[in-house]
Amino acid sequence: MQTSNSKGNAKAERRIRRLSLHLTPAAGVAAEQLEMATCGRGKVSVDTASLSRYMRGKHRDIQEKIFAYFNANPRLQTPVEISKDEHRDLCMKQLIGLVREAGIRPLRYVVDDPSKYFAIVEAAGAVDMSLGIKLGVQYSLWGGSVLNLGTKKHKDKYFDGIDNLDYPGCFAMTELHHGSNVQGLQTAATFDPITDEFIIDTPNDGAIKWWIGNAAVHGKFATVFARLKLPTYDTKGVSDMGVHAFIVPIRDMNTHQPLPGIEIHDCGHKVGLNGVDNGALRFRSVRIPRDNLLNRFGDVSRDGKYTSSLPTVNKRFAATLGELVGGRVALAYSSVSVLKVASTIAIRYSLLRQQFGPPNKPEVSILDYQSQQHKLMPMLASTYAFHFATKNLVEKYSQMKKTHDDELVADVHALSAGLKAYITAYTAKSLSICREACGGHGYAAVNRFGILRNDHDIFQTFEGDNTVLLQQVAADLLKQYKGKFKGGTFAVTWNYLRESMNTYLSQPNPVTARWEGEDHLRDPKFQLDAFRYRTSRLLQSVAVRLRKHSKSLGDFGAWNRCLNHLLTLAESHIESVILAKFIEAMESCPDPSSQAALKLVCDLYALDRIWNDIGTYRNVDYVAPNKAKAIHKLSEYLSFQVRNIARELVDAFDLPDQVTRAPIAMRSEAYSQYTQYVGF
């Protein structure tokens, strides 16, 4: 009884001590540091140069060429305060300078070497995110549509003009009433067999092309997505062959005035990316030659006959959109770059900034506070995880462009949708957290969080709304699940489901559910098994729910009833993929010190995710109460350990000061630069 009382008293004292941290945080920080420092484990040693080399892409040379060009041309650097019209003019000058003066020609890499193209976009976006997007509109969307959806005659005619910016262009897909539902587009392209032309027409206000980048000011051409209609010479009048892409000149090459039948309007000032001139396009019986149909997947002969190697409207539509998946790959990749910049600024500031401290002792770095570590260290771990996941995605996409392997095409389509949705949503939330973590100084525009947040925010919407993309991932998972029970095979990315579904259908092991040793919790097999078990459980349970509700609500109603469940399933799957790629990258790292650092960061990423969804694991007894506590305690310790090497980890991103550009993030003399900016 006495032993029991003493244990109870000790427990109560620990509880009181922890509660007292809220009242005397500075003393609490010192106590926490002391407690963690005496755990018997030393700080991981990091060779920053070695880790940076491992992280660095193979096209760093062309990125450094871009940074050097803009560093040498201050006139092309975007000021903090700039009007919409000035920003648009500057952004076009930046692009022209990059192409014609610095000699960066991105178009050839869109198809031939996508990883090099994405490196160019990343560097341009680091200079000004508007520049990265404008470059993407010109080369990936306008140029990419010509290369990927057209045939040799189109490449021969347009390649050089697109590449050297003589032919600035647009990608006119979105309409006022239709964004995500591309098959619902209403713009019409009706073939006139007498004149051998297509007539492009906007049938109503809802069909006006909207949010079209490069349209308001600079574009001379547009790839217009419209319903191809052929005369049938019967009571039907026309036959709708589905959505196709057409090259439509929109401005005179000499006067730059809108061509007859083309109405162009400005979408105006936006929340962010105001260097990009988004506009609206209306077509009033605009005639274009038959050859302007981008005819890789479907063609119309001189006598009005339609031919295609693909038998149905749906297959042609899928093939068309499949060739445009590079935009999603670029956004996922670019979003990680934004997250690197934001986390670097916030962490460097948190290391420099000191506030409060033990009585009669120096003030301590705010990154020594557990609350600040909780905000920023899992974010830093996620940044590393996303880096390796998107690096793998770019490699797969590059392989897909070379091989055109059907299985790889399907894999990249689903993976790019999921990673784009998951990473851009995470980065958007993290930008606000970083701003808050830097207090009042984070609110200064010069310290970049507001600009980054506003410019990045639309990443969650264009190239596919995130909620819609996650539904595509969930639908693909269900398709794979259904195929499993018909003797089919899983696609590449879903292979793990074969084993984990079998594991799920059996009860959790009551012994392993209670294992709480550090070696076990830091075992990649335990971490991956936990992630994959959750995905398999969500997949099986949502399949049962859909089957049940479809009987009374129909397929559409059942899907809507289970929608949140489906979104959670998709996110869980993507987290499993990200962790698997992080573990692969960590285990492949040749330098022992870098591998140790990556192992620490990877463990934090995994255990923090498990803890954030601990309710799911507890509900099915996958994790016993004592194990849940051990996971939480270990993740807190790992967060502290990552804090100890945070400087080295962000330095390994190897971001030049001209990329971070925030006075509060400079490695030294932060306050002197900041005070100089405001006029002291």
Automatic annotation (TrEMBL):
Compartments where located: Peroxisome
One GO CC annotation: peroxisome
Family named by the database record: Belongs to the acyl-CoA oxidase family.
Keyword Amino-acid biosynthesis: no
Residues spanning the membrane: none
Cofactor dependency: FAD
Residue intervals of the Acyl-CoA oxidase/dehydrogenase middle domain: 170-286
Domain Acyl-CoA oxidase C-terminal: 523-667
Organism: Flemingia macrophylla
Claim: Transit peptide is one of the keywords in the record: yes
Protein name: Acyl-coenzyme A oxidase
